[in-house]
Design a protein that fits this description.
homodimer, alpha/beta, Dna Topoisomerase Vi A Subunit, Chain: A, domain 2, four-stranded parallel β-sheet, two-stranded antiparallel sheet, 8 helices, 6 strands, 11% strand, globular
């Protein structure tokens, strides 16, 4: 058998590290890039370089922004509710939450979750900046939107304890049945959370 | 809702054109590239540039090679059988075929298949170069390894007619049941080809 030229193997190896790209897809992508006819690879290089030069994290909340919007558009949007911050783990989480209806406050990216086993302690997270924002932006309520795994839960509890003692209202997003999901597919823990978090249906005649 | 910075949207749009990458995966890849911590994007740009600068098609057979191996390693490999050429559509086809055991000849990439509806005529394919190779490399047999769709079949028939009239033996790879495939999953046409292409089992006691 003959093997591919080394630059293609190197590109395959590099593409392999992207999320969701396995060795077979990486090879197909690398070959497609190597054999492109119409300068596609050049366009990709330019797009990558542009992202590299312009994309930054917002210096206020940690969300994704570019050089020209620092602080980011959400932080500087005056139509947004003041006094309300939604705390998330990763900067990409702000995208999905801002697409969801019903939240009109600002965000704060923690940059991870507490994980003593992996050596992630409170001082490794972006908590000090959150404290500063709470006093500076006169925040009344923090909504915790962390993942509902063990580490996410631990982080939520830590933050709740930390900030309620400072007189800030702390809430967390609800756990429950996904919209469109049937009872038969839900696990017991989710059902138990959905039950304990039940909301009264107020029907006005 | 707030949208992503424009350079990320542009990168998403560019990545979307790669084979097997849909809008959702493209966005995930673009975000991962934009947020990389350890210079991964730079590594990818370098790998792409290197592919761009070094990868070429073999000037003899049309397979993928690099600047330093022109003609390619297969064309210049003296241990390979002379007189035998396997004709394929795309340069990537040579990779899979050279991994398969049982073929030790050289390749020739047509660069497509006949498709009158799309305006692909014999003169648009790499057939003249194949003719030159047949006389220059004193080829006895051409194996056609084209896809078994309508256009591939038409191309095979055209080439068979063209080259048998010049006294060259032309064969084609077998159609039949994939190895590991069951009868119940095969379509009728494949089964009919598998039947007509049956091989006698010679058992010596």
């Amino acid at each position: 058998m003959h093997s591919l030229p080394e630059p293609i193997l190197e590109l395959t190896d590099t593409l392999c590290r992207l999320p969701g790209i396995g060795p077979r897809s990486a090879e197909r992508l690398a070959l497609s890039l190597a054999l492109n006819q119409d300068g596609f690879d050049e366009r990709l290089i330019k797009a990558l370089q542009r992202v590299r030069e312009t994309i930054q994290l917002c210096r206020n909340c940690g969300a994704i922004t570019d050089k020209e919007h620092q602080p980011c558009k959400i932080c500087t949007d005056e139509r947004r509710e003041t006094g309300l911050i939604c705390v998330v783990e990763k900067s990409t989480d702000t995208l999905n939450l801002s697409k969801a209806a019903g939240f009109n406050g600002r965000f704060h990216v923690l940059g991870g979750k507490l994980s003593p086993l992996n050596g992630v302690e409170p001082e490794d997270l972006n908590i000090l900046a959150l404290e500063n924002r709470i006093s500076k932006e006169s925040i009344n309520e923090i909504i915790l939107a962390l993942s509902s795994d063990v580490e996410g839960e631990a982080t939520s509890h830590y933050l709740a304890q930390h900030f309620t003692s400072q007189g800030v209202k702390v809430s967390r997003i609800a756990s429950g049945l996904p919209v469109g999901g049937g009872i038969e597919y839900a696990d017991e823990l989710t059902l138990s959370r959905a039950l304990s978090g039940r909301l009264e249906m107020k029907i006005t005649n």
